Amino acid sequence: PFQIKDKIQTNIKINLLLLAGSIIFLLFVESLLYLLNIPEKRLRYDIALPFIIENDHRGYDWRGYHTFRDELFELDKVILTDPDRSVFWVPRSGIYPFNSEGTIGDKKDERCTNKRCARILALGDSNTLWDGESAYPFIFQSEAARSIEPFCEIRLINAGVHGYSTYQGLNYLKRFIGYKPDIITISFGWNDTVPVRAPEDKYYGKALYNLIQKKEFLLYDLMHKSRIVQIMEKGIIFAMTIFVEPETRHRVYPEDFRENLIKMIQISKEIGAIPVLITRPHYFRENKIHQFEYDVDKYNDIVRKISEEEKIILFDMSLKMKKYKISGIFSDYSHLNEYGQQVAGRLLFERIKDKMMRICSENEK
Predict the structure, then answer these.
(1) Which residues does 286 contact at the CB level (< 8 Å), separation at least 6?
(2) 80: helix, coil or strand?
(3) Segment 30-51, tens digit of pLDDT
(4) Whether the predicted model's global pTM rises above the 0.70 cut
(5) If we measure between CA atoms, which residue out of 182, 178, 180, 185 comes closest to residue 158?
(6) Which of 114, 142, 203, 346 has the lowest CB atom count within 10 Å?
(7) Alpha helices in the chain (DSSP H)
């Protein structure tokens, strides 16, 4: 019995020594990695593997980047967005070009100073946002002001957000009902088509929320700040990029794209606003390298068909821009340049000028 007892005690001591040695070794390695700043590019947030893979194992899915690591200024490292459950990310309020409500232009509770007034809400993605007040919604506002004011005051919220799909646009629209817009312009399609390896948009929000909730646990938080864990994650990602090819899917499938647009139209009508559908402008490179370069026109065709079925005003920006030299109006294959934005804004005003005049003649705000 004494020999057995001694053997057990010896084994316990050995295991404790091994445990203590392992802890000391790990702490030493962690400290060394910290001093050497390895890995140099670490995640700003503690993101679970599916959200890392979508960026490092490219499906050209920028949702994780926009949600957690958007940086406006390279040197200052100013974070441009905040995580949000229903729309994944929102512009950080008060960071240029966004106002204290995270939009550009008016605030939701601002009221007209003129008895006659028209309020415009511009929904869309990065092409609508562009660089702020030089974007086509503000060119449109300037054209309207030049033609209509002082007879009628033209107010505008540019609620375009980079990377937004129709799923996000639909949920974002609900936040502006109190603004009581007279016209709502709706321009989406490019981001909906993007093939992704993480969940599609209608399931992504739940996964994102569950991820953010895990940050409440101290152990989880501390573990994912470890340099060792970061290296392990990168190793797993590297292995997966070599041996695993995850299934891809659209961020928003065509049938959901259609449904989201119809819901936006319904909401617009319910609050007394005139919806204006806008096709997403683009140009195709001769050597297409992304699947969504083939798909964007299919989604634009859905927009055209909805406008016809629902008797909704259509501004076919994609078609209109094909009349201009591509090199003169695009900054890249999916975004207009400054001149392109000016052209789009003027053409949009011409398209809905009559509606604007009618609204101004009827409205007394």
Answers:
(1) none
(2) coil
(3) 999 988 888 765 544 334 444 4
(4) yes
(5) 185
(6) 203
(7) 2-36, 49-56, 63-68, 126-129, 136-148, 166-173, 190-193, 201-214, 218-223, 227-243, 254-270, 292-310, 317-321, 326-329, 338-362
